[in-house]
Specification:
- The complex is a heterodimer.
- Chain A has one domain (about 1-470).
- Chain A is built from 20 helices and 2 strands.
- Chain A has helices spanning about 5-25, 30-50, 65-90, 95-115, 120-135, 145-175, 180-190, 195-210, 220-225, 230-255, 255-260, 260-285, 290-310, 310-340, 355-360, 360-375, 380-395, 400-425, 440-455, 460-470; strands at about 55, 60.
- A two-stranded antiparallel sheet of chain A has the order 1-2.
- In chain A, a hairpin with a 4-residue loop joins strand 1 and strand 2.
- In chain A, helix 1 runs antiparallel to helix 2, helix 10 packs parallel to helix 13 and helix 14 (about 310-340) crosses helix 20.
- The longest helix of chain A is centred in the middle third of the chain and has 32 residues, at about 145-175.
- Chain B has a two-stranded antiparallel sheet with strand order 1-2.
- Classes of the chains: A mainly alpha, B mainly alpha.
Chain lengths: ~475, ~500
Amino acid sequence: MQALAPEIILAIAAGLILLVEAFLPRLRKHLSELTLIAVGGALWARVTMPLPGSVWSDALRIDGLASFVDIYILIAVFLTVWMAGPFLRRLEADHGEFYALLLLASVGAMVMAASVNLLTIFLGLELLSIPLYVLNAFLRQTGISLEAGLKYFVVGAFASAFVVYGMALLYGATATTNIVDIGERVVAAGELNPLLAIGLAMVVGGLAFKIALVPCHAWAPDVYQGSPTPVTAFLSVVPKGAALIVLLRLAVGMDLLHVSGRWVLGISIVAVASQVLGNVVAIVQRDVKRMLAYSGIAHMGYALVAVLVAGRDGGTAVLVYFTAYTLMNMGAFAAIALMSEREDRPHLIEDLKGQGYHRPMAALTLTVCLFSLAGVPPFLGFTAKFMVFRAAVNEGFVLLAIIGVVNSLLSAFYYLRVIYALYMEPLPDPEPKLEPSLPIAAAATVAALGVLVLGTYPGPVLEAAASAILSLVR
Amino acid sequence: MSDHVLTIVLLAPTVFAVLLLPVPKMWRRVHRVSTIISSSIMFAFSLKLWFGFDADNPGFQFVDSFAWIPQLGISFHIGIDGISILLVLLTTLLLPVVVLAAWRLNIEHIKSLHISLLLLTTGMIGTFVALDLFLFYIFWEITLIPMYFIIGVWGGPRRIYASVKFFLFTMAGSVLMLVAVLYLAWFHHGQTGIWTYNYLDLLETAPLVPTSGGLLAPGLLVFAAFAIAFAVKVPIFPLHTWLPDAHVEAPSTGSVILAGVLLKMGAYGFIRFNRTLLPDAWELFTPLLMVLAVIGIIYGALVAMVQVDVKKLVAYSSVSHMGFVMLGLAAGSQASTQGAILQMVNHGLSTGGLFLLVGMLYQRRHTRLIAEFGGLAGVIPVFTGCFLFVTLSSIGLPGLNGFIGEFLILGGAWSAFPVAVVCGGLGIILGAVYMLMMVQRVFWGPLENPANQSLPDLTIREFFVMFPLLVLIVWIGVHPMTFLSPMEAAVRLLLAR
């Protein structure tokens, strides 16, 4: 019970927030603060509670890995809620459901990342996805938000069906739903039989939808663009992280790197295709959020290289990459939320012209996050890429590392485009009007500072990731 | 050395930049005064390196080493030897010079300019002193960001194109270097079982990377990855196309730093990493480097000859002069290598000086087209004198610094590469032709353009900007041993590897 305290706190808080909204109208204005307290409490519980490992007859493994993932999910949620409060108030959409759904989605992500059983994985996946369908469409007066919700729902339901069907096949092939046992069987057999291979492919395909990997990426730009910006920020990191951890558990459990040549080939192709497509298409985007959607596809391509390498190096790299990606994406989206004038229109790069001097702090945080996304030192994004490519080179995938660094170069081009719009072009006329919002600015600044500080002194993150991964790879 | 002099020199600019951050941006004078004072102090402090330097010790001095990312075997490990000390001092010298040169410029965002310059300085010094390949890579890449802003924010009409081109060219060169660094570390681990990025440790194993087995031999690929990164920066023909754009669009502050220090990072990389880490591949690639160096010398000179814009002319002359540096490094004798390193400093002084003067001229007339000028000698005699002096140093007049560098390079390369030396000699003649032609057309002849009739001469401030450069130009020309002797032992050790 104790081990699950963070999840329980969040779930109870979700219920309480709905009750508060219904029965305590005076507190309605402070829902986001209440949610922040709940998330903070969950974070505190996660850090202080013991990590017993297997709980509830091995349905969940609350181990070092789960704890690491939980902490970054909770930080992401914290930043999301921090920026969501003023954002929603500005749009007069500050309803309790938003926070309740967000908390439930986080519980889903945490369950997913901690589970070693196909059934609980699926349970987590659905608990994560269903609230998100609603959250995407939360600005129900704006068309693009509704469109985003509908698209994510259709694609998401399709992906869930894939995952379930794949799981059924995995169960059929091995007569167990525990992925550790499945892994042991695969390792003992030394190969993937056709049934297992098809099942695995379907599960991976379904998860690829959640992660937005090529060729299951098509929903991402529209959904990113249409969703309320805080939801986009959440969507761009939390489900992706949870799904990647599931992939990592599968890959490590079955030792796929050594068991299946097809896995190596297939994942390499998906990784490279995601990087290339994401980066190339991002170049022609005019909307910042769409651009970040494509850049996210590319980033998942890099992270997938680390999943492929697996092992201690690869696993550490996945975790470091996700820490970096979470902070830079959160910072970037918060900065965009700060600088966007209206939500029912696209967030064009042109609209950012001259903002570098008009809103220096927001522009600076965005710049830091974008340089970090481009993988320029001394930011955390560079450290993360370094870890991924290091793992790839050490395992003999030099070519993948080369493709990766060349892709980073491609990506620099479109990130620079935003930066020069910010600093090197004059303010448009008339000037965009927007009242400054302290909490959003604070969230952006915290994320950007994290990117900078952890980038120049990455020791603690690397240490934490390396020890977290020990619970998966011995 | 236990007093961390080098670490202080390296990090002080960043500390000053952070201190500038909270100062309100309207306080322009405060920014200027504090930056000039802090950069002068930093230069004075960096002289401690010079006076504390032991010329007979070929190894690294002022070494500081802290564990930084122990999980990966990465340390904050810095030190200087006879090769890097001159470049570090050149960097710290040029900072106050450019800050003073930009003093009266009526430009926006003066605070950000100073912060960028200070951060850039840390990056540049770091590149010259890093003894850990990871650290080196970080500093190498860090210089991109401030320089990108300096060109892009304070540059000319095509500044965005120029700054993005600069960023992408340089990054394109260096991303593969990252893979090469990773490979060397992996190779070292394979040989010794230890994870490290320490330059001194990798020196033991990197030469063992196999270079035979066709074009795809790992040693050759690693060499190429490093070489491309450095070749873009030097720049070596045909990777030089970003340079004229960047130079012409950059404000003169940026041009001086770019020509004075940034280009040297490339040449320094060649001698420090390519040459010592992969000596076998260096042997194989020497003819290619030699050919490209000679092409750069001649090509740069020929293109410079037809320029109508003074700044562009000086930019192409940089391509030509850096060709000499590469020729000296590729020839690889004691004299030519020392000459090449001295020539790096010379180029920083004379081309940096030319860019400063061109900037001052631009400030007076808001044009840089040669055709707009003529007969300036009568109007601004002191300025003309300075310009002529720096030009003569740039084309290698005996008694000034350029002569010593070029003489050592060509003399040292003569026995092994006579053809290249002859071509290099031709480049010197061409250099004299285009530079003197430009001087003649700008400063002599009839004073026809009425806009030129009442230009103010060199001000006291501008004279103080030029003064340190002029002194050093003469000093190196008259008594080069002051600068050659500290590097002698280090170069000997380097060539013996």
